[in-house]
Amino acid sequence: MPDAEVAHLELLAEVDALEESLARWVAGAPRWGVAESCRALVRRLAERSTKLRVRLEAPLVVATLGGSGTGKSALVNALLGAEVVATGRERPTTRRPVLVCRGDLGPELLGIPAESVEVRRLDLPALSDMVLVDCPDPDTSESAEGRETNLARLRAILPHCDVLLVTASQQKYRSARVAEELAAAATGARLVFVQTHADTDADIRDDWRAVLSRHGFEPGRIFFVDSLAAVADAAQHRAPTGEMAALVDLLTRQLAGSAANRIRRANYLDLAAATLAACQERIEAAWPAVRRLEGALAEQRATLAARMSEQTRQVLLGSRREWESHLLGQVVMRWGFSPFAVVLRAYHGLGGLLTGTMLLRARSPAQIAVWGAVEGARTLHRAARRRQARSAA
Description:
Radius of gyration: 42 Å
Order of helices and strands: HHEHEEEHEHEHEHHHHHHH
Number of helices: 13
Structural class: alpha/beta
Helix content: 55-70%
Largest sheet: 7 strands, mixed
């Protein structure tokens, strides 16, 4: 079996094992508010794994992300080597994601909803192992078709992309909105940073790198390209040069082709790690409350145990004579007239013996009255203890 097929099977096995582990956790997660939210996150992750499986044989999906006027559409044309999508530096021209692919592909084969993109099928060499998506701007509020905004369409397409070309110009590399959308889309995609307008702008890559670092990104190499010059070179059948040549080589040779599945695997594992870390963070944040509840339950349990112990003691004390008689009967039945049984019988009958002796030795009505008072007191005391035991129960 070829090495490529073995690697493909290993990738499928890894995805299957992770899916099974996630499914077991979802099935066994407790009915707890925090666990329910984590369960929803894990279900979303499972959906991504299903889409990953669909796209394992598909070309690399590369999309643009950047502010309005940063040259996203021009960069797409430069990578394609032809004028395919409309460009404009003055105002945004892309209001709906444009998916450019070869003729035998479509959004469904890429796991992308067909209604979310405008499809253009072309026979271009650059599309042999790659699909390009020209995305709308995140920093404009213009609506596309119907009520859906450009931002909503952008957010719908980004989760399906393997590589994001993050574009910026000298005028627009500090956009807070772009940084916000980049942070949301970064997990699950490979990021490639490109400064455009090299024909007119100064090189701001060092400053941009510092800005990105403050937002938690490590951009690595940032490409500085002139997209319009690259399109002109392609029209004259000239190969790209300089930074554009390096960018094309990265996309077509290092990331596309057989490397696409490695990119998708790495992106998916990054997404899984980020999702599980978010679940862990939520659970750890709620754990002190669980500990407090556990302590309160332990305290209540101790209080109830002490109360039940006291009630049981009162019941047993109130029924002592009955229990003594019952135990004595059991001992006599099992031990007969052994010394131990005789001693117990004598101890149990000692009180009755004393009162009986008092009655036998009584010689006057006064002594009989004393005996009656003692026996009556004992009877009243036993009755009082029985009532107290019943009320405590």
